[in-house]
Amino acid sequence: MPSKPAPIKKAANKEPAKKEEKAAEPEPAPEPAPEAAPAEAAPAEAPAEGEAAPAEAPAAEEPKPPTPPPADAAAPAVEETPAAAAEAPADAAAAPATEEAAPAADGEAPAADAEAAEAAPEEPKAPTPPPPPPKEPTSAPVDLFIEDKNDTSVTIIWSQPETIGHTGLDGYTIEIAKDGTEDWKAVNEEPQKSCRYVIKNLTTGDRLKIRVVAVNAGGRSAPCALPEAVLVKEVADRPKVRMPRFLRQRYVANVGAKINLTIPFTGKPKPVVSWTKDGQPLDTKRVNIRSTDRDSIVFIRAAERDDSGVFEICVKVDDFEDKAQFILQIVELPGPPASLKIVDTWGFNVALEWTPPKDNGNTEITGYTIQKADKKTGDWFTVLEHYHRLNATISDLIMGNTYNFRAFSENKCGISESAIMAKQEAKILKTGIDYKPPEYKERDSSEAPKFTTSLNDRATTVGYSTKLLCSVRGSPKPKVQWMKNQMIIGDDPKYRQICVQGICSLEIRKPGNFDGGVYSCKAKNDHGEATVSCKLEVKQAAVADADKK
Predict the structure, then answer these.
(1) Cis peptide, bond prior to residue 269, ω within 30 of zero
(2) Second CATH level (architecture) for the domain 447-539
C-alpha cells in the first residue's frame, strides 16, 4: 500500500501539461464530475508500465495545435474539463482503496477500457453529393437584323441562341458603339427578355454599330453584331395617294351636310401634305385639314354651295411627290322655271311653254311638274310629272271652265319649293256643235234557214220524258214547225215546243208505246226552208219475274 502514492503524484504532475495543451483550445462546456473519476484512473497506471512519462514531457514544453474532438467524446471529455483535472488529486486520495483494488485484480484493466473507448465505431455520415457541373454561357444570338428605323430610333430583332445550356437564359443586352470606335455601351439596364428591341433617343445622322449579347448565370455569350454600321435616318419610301373608290367620281352632297372625307396615303419618312382647291390654297376658315402619317382628312362642318370645286392633295417625300384629286359638288333644291305662258287654246286643249330656272341648285335639272286648277274651285291637280321638255299640250279640259297653270323645276335634291304661274288664263269656250251621224250602208243579211245542229236518233223508256234538240239560223227569223211521221204536231199538250235564239227543242212528256216514230223539224222563211229528222224509239220497261207471276 505505501508504494501506490507515487503514481498518484505523477498523475498530478501530468495535469499541468494537459492544462497548457488545452489553453490553446476553446473552452468547451463543462462535463459532469462523476464521469471524470474513472477517466483519471487510466493515466494513473501509466507510469507503472514506463510509457506515459516520456510521452507527457514534450507535451508540456511544446503545445500542439488544437485537434477537433472525435465523434465519440466519452474518453477525452475528462481531459477537456479543467475543473475535473483540478479535482483529480482529491478524488484519488478520497478513494485509494478503490484504486488499489483495481490493479490487484488486474493491473491492465484501465488501459483496456481506454482502448475500447477509442476503438468504438463512429456514427455513419451522409454521402457527399457530386460537385455541380461548371456554369457556361450560352451561344451567341443569331439572325440579327433591322426591322425598322427612323430619325431617332432603330428597331432590331433577332433569334435566340442555338445552345442555351442547363443554366437557362436570363435575357439579352443590347450594345451600341459609334462607327470607327470600340466604345460599346449597353442601352438597356436590365437584360431584355424579348427578341425585339427599339433603340430610342438616337441622333439623326449618326452611324452606329449594334450587337446583342445573351446573358445567363455562366456570364455573357459571344456577341452577335450587325454586319455594317446603321445610319440613323428614316428609310425613304416613294409617296403614294390611295384615293378611295367613291371619290374617284364626283362626290355630291346637299347644302348643310357634314363633309368628312379620309384620303389615305403611304410614304416614308412622314410625307409633307398640301391641299389646293381649283388650283388655289384652301380657305382654312371653311375647310379643316387634319393629316397624320397615314392619311389626311377633309372636314367641313356645314357645306355650302361655295365649297364645291376640284380638291387636289399632294404628298411629298424628299424629291418624290404624288398627287390626286376629287370633285366635290354641294347641291340644293332648284328655283322655279324662269317663265311660263299659254301659247294657244283650242277646243278642249291648251298649249304651254316655259324656260329653265335661273338657279338649278348647282346640278342639272332632271324634269318639270305641270299643274292645273279650275278657277271655280282653286284646287291644283298634277297633269305632267318628271317631264323633260320645255313645252306641252294639256288636253281633256272641260268646256266652259277657266283654268290656271303653274310649273315646278326638279333636280337630284327634289322639286323646287316654289312654282311659276302663267299670267294668262285659259278659258274653254262653249261653241255650237252640229252633230251629223255618219251614213252607213245597210248590209243585206237575208239568209235562208239552215240547221247548224241536226237532230239525233234517241231511245227512251215508256213513262220517261225526253227532249229532241236542234239549232237553226236564218234571216229573217224562220218559222219552226215540228212533225211526227209527217204529221204536224200542233198544240198537242203531250208535246212542249220551245224556240229561243235559234235553239229549238221538243219535249215529249211521259211517252207511251205509241209515241215512237220519226220526228222532224222544219224551218221556213221568205228565202227558203230546211228540215231535219230523227227516229225516236220507245222501249218497254223491264219487269222482274216475280212481278210477272
Answers:
(1) yes
(2) Sandwich (2.60)
Grade residue 547 by pLDDT with cuts at 50, 70 and 90.
Answer: low
Taking only the tens place, the pLDDT of each residue in 515-533 is: 899 999 999 999 999 999 9
Residue-level pLDDT at 445: 82
In Å, the largest CA–CA distance within the chain is 207
The Cα angle at residue 460 between residues 454 and 465, in degrees rounded to 5: 90
Which burial class, exposed, middle or buried, applies to 195 when counting CB atoms under 10 A from its CB (0-12, 13-18, 19+)?
middle
pLDDT in tens, 124-133: 676 777 766 6
Cell of 461: 223508256
The alpha-carbon radius of gyration of the chain (Å, integer) is: 71
| Rounded Cα distance, 196 and 259, in Å | 42
How many other C-beta atoms are found inside a 10 Å radius of the C-beta of residue 236?
A: 13
pTM > 0.70: yes or no? no
Say if 337-427 and 447-539 have the same CATH topology: yes
**Rounded mean pLDDT of 37-46?**
38
Pick from 474, 473, 468: nearest CA to 521: 468
For the chain, give every domain's residue range: 5-114, 142-231, 239-331, 337-427, 447-539
Q: How far apart are CA 199 and CA 148, in angstroms?
A: 11
337-427: in CATH 3.40.1350.10: no
Q: Which CATH number fits domain 142-231: 2.60.40.10, 3.40.50.720, 3.40.50.790, 3.40.50.300?
A: 2.60.40.10
Contact 26, 67 (CB under 8 A): no
Confidence at residue 318, expressed as pLDDT on a 0 to 100 scale: 81
Q: Which of 150, 164, 181 is nearest to 172 (CA)?
A: 164
Q: Specify whether the CB–CB gap between 275 and 286 falls below 8 A.
A: no
The pLDDT tens digits for 185-231 are: 999 988 888 999 999 988 888 889 999 999 988 888 899 999 999 88
Mean pLDDT for all residues in the chain: 79
At 433, is the pLDDT very low, low, confident or very high (cuts 50, 70, 90)?
low
Give the phi and the psi of residue 69 in degrees, each rounded to 5: -65, 150
CATH annotation of 239-331? 2.60.40.10
**How many of the other CB atoms lie within 10 Å of CB of 362?**
18
